[in-house]
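Hey team,

Filing this mostly as a record. A colleague (T.K.) asked me to run one chain through the structure pipeline before their review meeting, and I want the input and output archived in the tracker in case anyone asks later how it was produced. No errors, nothing strange. Just documentation.

Input sequence:
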Amino acid sequence: MKNKIMILGLLVVMGCASLIPLKVGPPQDITVEITPERLTRGEYLATTVTHCTACHSKVDPEYYSYPSVPGTDGMGGFPFDEAFGIVYGSNITPSALGNWTDGEIIQALTEGVNNKGAPLFPIMPYDRLSIMPEEEIYSLVAYIRSLKPISNKVGKKKLKFPLNYIERTFPKPWDPQPLPDSSDKVAYGKYLATIGSCIMCHTPINDKMEPLEGMDLAGGQDFYLPGLVVRSSNITPDSLTGIGNHSKDNFISVFKSFREPIKLTDGTNNTVMPWVAFAGMTEEDLGAIYEYLRTVKPVKNRVEKYPGDEVSNE
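Output structure:
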């Protein structure tokens, strides 16, 4: 009898969770004008800083950091097989988004809701992109609209408990912020580090995907790859376990060293860090990120990059 009551209670909770209203309204009724300036800015943002194409393209696992295969930009299909379950990068080419309005694309980018009104799992960084000002988002929309149409049906996400029932609580209204002046290196660097997911990926989280208090940018978040786990690095200015001893020139040169993809000789030392995409950023933007990172609280946290062999996320 007790087990039956527990099962009934769980079913009630599950049913209620599915009825949780989204905290966002309808998409905007808007048509984004595609201009050369927006296409240029959108391409830069999508292929480097926000690395949309790194997550939404076919990747080559034989190269370090899984670079995109040329000619597959936006086709989707990459499986993010993590502790939360499995989520696939969506097809964002006009082949899949052709019947989406610009307002619906904007809502997906900034609020995490698709054109069917269903929530997107926040491995899609809409919670970070939500700070982007309108013009930056319009530029992303313009570039996405310009992608070559590629027909490619991707898999369906499968989330584990409890995230499969609290997913609806993640989307929130777009809160665009003014674009910091690029002359303010720290403020502009923080903006880039936010929309580039540096802050998200390098801050450890709990099982509800909440950042651990006092561990901002201290590394240690696990990412799952075939046969191994790789952990994000400590990028606080701690001199022993972080990047405190790295000069700006050294910081920039490390990124720029990945301009050409590096062929792997051993698949057990790969990473999800999109080095090839970030290598396309300007030295000014990489330098701004460095200036911002120098201002955050140093956290002593020694991270073992590869914590074990043949690790499963099951």
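Quick notes for T.K.: The longest helix spans residues 2-18. The two ends are 31 Å apart (CA to CA).
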